[in-house]
């Protein structure tokens, strides 16, 4: 269960889990493409799906089924997430005079319609509903379509309502992604799909990119931990179990300079696991997990950057020196009090993050994911004159004579 593991082997396991799902996901996408709503109903094996869309009345009644303290916590979490994401909001338009006669800038426009996926198979995730919806709303997206596996938990419905989602549909798995990407009789296609999910959801998003933009591969969950002799084994073990309880395909890796720490962490995992409510899921995820011992912090940082974990917890004597040097991570949690769970719920940052090594090339979900930009160029006659010779020379050199002519004519006006 808790074992030594090589970095290459750990990474290979993360990639192979996606490939194992490819045949199944391909079949599901084709069924939705051909049969639309009928396919969504047929693929909802454990639920008699009569109405795909959730009504306004169902949204309102969901509040009656959720404890008042939970509703209040969701409202407070929403406010904290919104406050942080408001800091990311770009200007609608900025212009800068680069030199006399040449003004350049960028116009930012929100997408019109996006889809969010909210997991719900093994547990309700109202937190993911907030994380996906809030930055879209802050960006100014007008239509936000949400899909979640049926039956959708009242907590998830309340969270989606608090966040101002415009449409909610009972559909989960790869079929939900296909519905949002391709459209059905009930679900209009979207421009972009965001949100975490299992291997089937993640692979469906990747496979449908010719039809719809996505955020990044997000799921199953994972954590990397860089630790030295100062790390508390109980804290490390608790972080391992917190990620492992998400999904049997979740994965955790401890990278440490202390050869004695893994054994201590193993003992704590065994102790904590005995009373864990989601023990069966954790035990399966621990088969994807383990530790590696390195010579020094330079090697630890290099190993972590190879892993490029979704969550990176830094439990070392001088954590900021590691933060400044590490390159690849979806989100970084510094010190013993910075539990990943805080980022999952209420500190304000986003918990939708790239997994399976994709933090080498992707950033976590933010407001920019829901915007597109266009450059703006404003030239007067003096500005055109200052670059006219350069443009004409290069256009002629490339054999694009009409390009050069379009500048020559303006210079004569």
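Sequence proposed for the structure above (413 residues):
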């Amino acid at each position: 269960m808790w074992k030594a593991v090589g970095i290459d082997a750990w990474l290979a396991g993360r990639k192979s889990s996606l490939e194992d799902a490819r045949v199944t996901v391909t079949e599901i996408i084709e069924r939705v493409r051909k049969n639309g709503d009928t396919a969504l109903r047929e693929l909802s094996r454990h639920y008699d799906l009569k109405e795909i869309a959730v009504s306004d009345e169902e949204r309102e009644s969901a509040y009656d089924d959720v404890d008042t303290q939970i509703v209040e916590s969701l409202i407070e979490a929403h406010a904290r997430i919104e406050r942080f994401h408001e800091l990311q909001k770009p200007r609608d338009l900025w212009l800068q005079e680069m030199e006399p006669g040449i003004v350049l800038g960028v116009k930012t426009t929100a997408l019109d319609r996006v889809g969010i996926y909210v997991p719900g198979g093994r547990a309700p995730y109202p937190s993911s509903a907030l994380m996906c919806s809030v930055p879209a709303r802050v960006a100014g997206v007008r239509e936000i379509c949400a899909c979640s596996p049926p039956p959708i938990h009242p907590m998830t419905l309340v969270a989606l309502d608090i966040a101002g989602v415009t449409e909610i549909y009972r559909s989960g798995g790869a079929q939900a992604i296909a519905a949002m990407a391709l459209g059905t009789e009930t679900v209009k296609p979207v421009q972009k799909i965001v949100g975490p999910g299992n291997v089937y959801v993640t692979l469906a998003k990747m496979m449908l990119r010719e039809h719809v933009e996505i955020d990044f591969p997000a799921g199953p969950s994972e954590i990397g931990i860089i630790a030295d002799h100062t790390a508390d084994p109980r804290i490390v073990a608790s972080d391992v179990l917190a990620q492992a309880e998400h999904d049997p395909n979740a994965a955790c890796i401890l990278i440490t300079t202390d050869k004695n720490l893994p054994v201590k962490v193993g003992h704590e995992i065994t102790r904590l696991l005995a009373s864990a409510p989601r023990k069966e899921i954790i035990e399966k995820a621990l088969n994807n997990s383990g530790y590696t011992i390195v010579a020094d912090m330079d090697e630890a940082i290099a190993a972590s950057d190879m892993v490029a974990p979704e969550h990176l917890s830094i439990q070392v004597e001088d954590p900021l020196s590691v933060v400044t040097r590490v390159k690849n991570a979806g989100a970084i949690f510094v010190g013993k009090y910075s539990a990943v769970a805080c980022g999952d719920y209420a500190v304000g940052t986003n918990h939708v993050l790239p997994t399976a090594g994709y933090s080498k090339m992707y950033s976590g979900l933010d407001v920019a994911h829901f915007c597109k930009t266009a450059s703006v160029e404003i030239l007067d006659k003096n500005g055109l004159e200052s670059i006219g010779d350069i443009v004409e020379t290069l256009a002629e050199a490339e054999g694009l004579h009409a390009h050069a002519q379009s500048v020559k004519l303006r210079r004569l006006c």
